[in-house]
Design brief:
Mean pLDDT: 84
Radius of gyration: 22 Å
Shape: globular
Strand content: under 5%
Helix content: 55-70%
Distance between the termini: 29 Å
Low-confidence stretches: 147-173, 488-492
Number of strands: 2
Number of helices: 22
Strand order of the largest sheet: 1-2
Oligomer: single chain
């Protein structure tokens, strides 16, 4: 197989250096708190990663003007995410006394895939570890793959394909001619959202550390359970409303923000995905709010407030919780699960199926009914004014099949734990959608410690699959990937 091994080794070293630099703020917090265990937990990996990465950079110099085939790109993606998840696990392993390395890998993977899941119960973790997970969330929200590729411009082709890897190819328009421009816009937007969130929470009369963690969490749509009571700990409508709205803003397509920066306001007005996403949140909030009010949950205003918070959390896969939603009525729970499956907009920090794919599938079904009545009619699949190409429709259809098949197969595998079906099914959806919070024995804490270590490894794999897509991750495990000259025919 034609792979540039020297290039892969260099990328491995660059990833180690990046992870070491990312750990420095957490080391500073550990030193400030005079926590010797956590000082070792961050100092050891930082020094070893910098040394190893520096040696690799010295002996494997950067190659200029080199073009790589598509297999090499897939291998780069897989190498970066695997290296990041494993190297990011070391602080958990050293810093938490009863942690196994599998537990630590799960926690690190949850961080980098922006999944609000844990096996350590986050409120009991040291401040430096909480900050470390929040930073993992933040980098994962931006896209660890895209972020590192922006630092190391190794690829000489496929700019648009790589730029749309995070949104699984659902960009409808070419918003910029080069990858570097797209990444520049995304970074500016992401930093802007994080800064707005930090300023908002900083004036909300809560500790500065909490404000910083909430800012990182809302911008990456990956909540961290800072306190046992969740967001309700603050007892502040200001904080609750801010978490909801800022999560929704981060759940919008970053393409819209790029249009905003370029003053293409007409593109924002006619964006069908934006309207559909807002409509889904609004309708779900009203329905669940009325159901809660009918059940005597609280007065109408409080019911609507709790409904909006939890709807925005599930719809953006951010994983925040304000009350024990697992005790809500069955219709409300079913709506929340549906929102978790759908997720937010394409090209956003959210995980799951995405609203754009739902619209394309809906239009495809609608066209199917039309052709039943008028067999000879020629009707394109359109979302708004944009005609969806046949390859894109095929890609979305394939993704939909793989997505729901993965949920089904994963539920069967997780059932080996012999937990109740509510816990098993919602756990599969929780990790694949990168939401993390779930129902049953997992609950609003998003604590997956109930699963066997083998299943925790499987759940970690599912989180990566949910973040990058089954095709992107699974292709590395195909025999034809490693032996491209051998093509196996399939007979029916």
């Amino acid at each position: 197989m034609n792979l540039d091994k020297k290039n892969l080794i260099r990328v491995f070293g660059e990833t180690l250096i990046f992870m070491a630099l990312l750990m420095i703020p957490s080391l500073i917090i550990a030193i400030k708190n005079n926590n010797e265990t956590m000082i070792r937990g961050f100092l050891y990996p930082i020094t070893s990663y910098l040394f190893a990465g520096g040696c690799i950079r010295r002996f494997f110099p950067k190659q200029h003007k080199r073009r790589y085939n598509i297999r090499h790109v897939y291998m780069l993606l897989f190498l970066i995410i695997a290296t990041s998840c494993i190297s990011g696990a070391v602080p958990y392993y050293i810093g938490i006394s009863d942690a196994s390395f599998i537990n630590s890998i799960f926690e690190s993977t949850a961080g980098l895939t922006t999944t609000s899941a844990t096996v350590f119960y986050e409120p009991s973790m040291d401040q430096s570890l909480i900050l470390w997970k929040a930073l993992e969330h933040w980098v994962g929200g931006l896209g660890i793959i895209v972020f590192i590729i922006s630092i190391i411009p190794l690829l000489g082709f496929g700019d648009q394909q790589i730029a749309t890897a995070e949104s699984h190819g659902t960009f409808l328009n070419k918003i910029a001619p080069r990858l570097s421009q797209i990444i520049r816009y995304i970074v500016i937007t992401y930093l802007g959202l994080t800064l707005i969130a930090l300023i908002y929470f900083a004036v909300g009369n809560i500790p500065l550390f909490d404000a910083f963690i909430l800012a990182l969490s809302t911008s990456s749509t990956a909540g961290i359970l800072l306190h046992t009571e969740g967001i309700s700990y603050y007892g502040s409508f200001y904080i609750e409303f801010g978490v909801s709205v800022l999560s929704v803003l981060s759940g919008l397509s970053f393409v819209l923000y790029i249009h905003l920066l370029k003053k293409n306001y007409s593109e924002i007005k006619k964006n069908i995905e934006l309207r559909a996403f807002i409509l889904i949140i609004a309708v779900s909030t009203v329905i669940i709010g009325l159901l809660l009010y009918k059940d005597g949950h609280a007065n109408l205003w409080q019911s609507m407030e709790d409904s909006f918070f939890q709807v925005s959390s599930f719809a953006t896969t951010s994983g925040f919780a304000i009350s024990n939603y697992t005790l809500w009525n069955s219709p409300s729970i079913f709506i929340l699960i549906s929102l978790m499956i759908i997720g937010g907009c394409s090209a956003s920090t959210t995980g799951s199926f995405k609203v754009m794919r739902l619209l394309i599938i809906w239009k495809l079904i609608s066209r199917g009914f039309t052709k039943r009545i008028h067999p000879r009619v020629v009707k394109n699949v359109k979302v708004g004014d944009s005609i969806i190409s046949a390859p894109m429709v095929s890609s979305v259809t394939t993704f939909a099949f793989m997505y729901f098949a993965t949920i089904l197969i994963s539920t069967i595998i997780l059932s080996l734990q012999n937990l109740d079906i509510e816990s098993t099914f919602s756990a599969a959806i929780g990790v694949i959608s990168n939401s993390g919070i779930s129902f049953g024995s997992i609950g609003m804490d998003g604590n997956y410690a109930v699963f066997h270590p083998f299943l925790q490894v499987f759940l970690s794999f599912l989180m990566v699959v949910g973040r990058l897509g089954f095709m992107t991750v699974g292709i590395v495990f195909l025999p034809t990937f490693w032996n491209p000259h051998k093509v196996t025919s399939v007979k029916f």
